[in-house]
Amino acid sequence: MADFDAIVVGSGMSGGMSAKELTERGLKVLVLERGPEIIPERDYVDNLAPWESPNLDNVAQDEIAERYPKQYGGVAYAIKESNKNFWVRDDEHPYEEAEGTSYDWLRGYHTGGRSIMWSRQVYRLSNLDFNANKTDGYGIDWPIRYEELEPWYEKVETFIGIAGSAEGLPQLPDSVFQPAFELTDAEKALKAKVETTFPERNVIAARVAHLTDATEEQQSLGRSNCQVRNRCHFGCSFKAYFSSLNATLPAAERTGNLTMVHNAIVSSIEYDAETNRVTGVRIVDAETNEKRLYTSKVIFLNASTIASAMILLQSKSVAFPTGLVNRSDQVGRNLMDHVSGAGAAGLISGFDNQKVFGRRPSGGIYIPRYANLNGQDKPYLRGFGFQGGSSPLGNAGGRIAGIGRGFKEAHKNPGPWRVNIGAFGEQLPNPENRVTLHSSKRDRWGNPLALFHVTYSDNEHTMLEEASKDAVAMLEAAGCSDITANDVSLTKPGNRIHEMGSARMGHDPADSVLNSWCQAHDVPNLFVTDGSFMTSSACQNPSLTYMAFSARAAHYAADLIADGTL
Amino acid sequence: MTTRREVLQGLIVSIGGATALTACGGVANVLSTRPGSAARFYTSEEYALVTRISDLIIPRTETPGAVDANVPGYMDGLMTDWANNETKNAHRTALRQIKVELDQRASGNFLDASDSAAEQSLVSFDAAAFAEDGDTSGYKRVKGYVSQSYFATEDGATEELKWVAFPGRWDPSVEI
């Protein structure tokens, strides 16, 4: 008799959704979280006033060098003294990079995983994306199309809450929206001029997972509308932005079917060759080093794209000598992220007499993909979207000339407005881009370190060069002055924190790990519904898609349990 | 009549614990060096310089100024508790160079200059520093510390910037 109906490994973005849907179907679910518990009332620091955080809330420079060189190097904008505990310490959680490569593995180990530190932009994929691999031959064909996923997008969006505007764009299907954060007048001017000059391009409000008109269901979970403080990286006491800690885990908890165990680092998954089923999860307690085994009827891997692949690779048996469900040798391969490093900024005139009220969270504008929409018409494959926004320069933090009353009061006045846009491009799947288990180095709990080998192809370089030109052209069309566009410098792989693809889904067990239900081809009671399943990366922020697939897979698994198949 | 400079000199003398000033309250930051306490990073002369230029950059107006908000103490804490040795050394070097530049412009010790002479010296130096490629002293960074520290204090954030903890709504277009 198994301890649980289902074990979900990981409590982050996708794990929370898996747990919610499985528990709401009446299954007894254990969620294993490798980090400590975060209790919002105790651990969120969003209500600290600026003067309550010493040293401009900066982490001491020596501490950064000693403890956070990778994390801070990747997301300095998000790691502050008051919230540094949301990010892993690199000295405690090291990883390795193959010679000549570099990788940003940016993460947090605690309840909710990265869902409490994410930047909350959410966009659906479209059939442009699901057809991409088949069309140009890079990677393998997705075994699913948009129409099958659409109801699951709707279900997830209705639950999590998304502020956005319906645009009717085929390449970026509309979500279920709550009212968008309205564009500033500077952004509206940019939109008008860009859309006139480039009819195939659109400037729309960023779609963000923030409540602006909370539903009864959301309110029943203690969630309320966004207070427009832009303190999201510190947690949200209003639970206004979506995180698993704010929404899915409480929803799972209230079913009475959820058990959560923290500090449980998964070492391996047990496999029974006789029944061809996974039977349990072996863990080591992060604090006591105690080893335990939990058993269940089905297992959902939601440990994150890197960690789930590593758990599979660590789970070796006679039947799977190179790692669980790795008969295709695709586990750990095709590691993708999005690529940035091209964009532009400029001053836009005519708005010096305006300012804003409130601090808008996350993004302001989004320019959906416009490249290669109807056939191949660019010198690169696939495409990119731009994220951006506008803000007055007035509060310049001492970077403007002058002293005395004039300088002091300049900080209250908006001054000229600045607009900026930055590209998020698609990365092609490449089996040579991979994470493997280091052959000798292990962490303090005895698990192998991750070894990354990820490089960009010519396509990503060409795409970003073109994106840079496009960005400048759009700001020029908008009449911007003082346009700056730094030399294109691609972000490190992993830096966008959209890693995906390490256990891709496909039609054929010979070249893929999962089927269209995120179910392992070779072991029917094993599901992987974090970013690992992604067969291509598209260029949209992926968390929404992870959650839609997680919900869909959870119901499929529940059906299989109900009919006795599992 | 007591000049602003004399008030500041009194404050500076207090560094070392001679006097506890209560007029510079409103700063809750526990890691700032409190007015009246010994500086932990700055020498007396450095603290005097930081205090003088902070006061000139962000003076008291209808709202508290940088000295009222204990910006020098905030910066002393910043250098003590946040900065690494490289940053500390660069900051010290910058202060030395700034002092040289300001002494030249004041035709003597900048710290002894009259209010108007000191102001004119810093106006001149600031303009030169913000000319293209004009800042070789690190002055802009020091000015950045002053400004950022000021607006991170309760005085600067709430009284000058009218910072609101809970806006509660987003209005993208407010006419001034």
Q: Can you give a write-up of this model?
A:
The complex is a heterodimer of chains A (566) and B (176). Chain A is of the alpha/beta class and 566 residues long. Chain A is 24% helix and 18% strand. Chain A is built from 14 helices and 17 strands. In chain A, the strands form three sheets. In chain A, strands 1, 2, 5, 6, 7, 8 and 17 form a seven-stranded mixed β-sheet that branches. In chain A, α1 (13-24) packs parallel to α10 (244-253) and α7 (146-160) crosses α14. The longest helix of chain A has 20 residues, at 458-477. Chain A starts with a strand and ends with a helix. The model of chain A has no long low-confidence stretch (mean pLDDT 96). Chain B is an all-alpha fold. In chain B, 55% of the residues lie in helices and 3% in strands. Chain B has seven helices and one strand, in the order αααααααβ. Chain B has helices at residues 4-14, 44-57, 71-82, 85-106, 115-130, 139-152, 154-160; one strand at residues 171-175. The longest helix of chain B has 22 residues, at 85-106. Chain B is globular and about 50 Å long. The model of chain B is unreliable at 8-30 (pLDDT under 50). At the A-B interface, α3, β10 and α12 of A face α3, α5, α6, α7 and β1 of B.
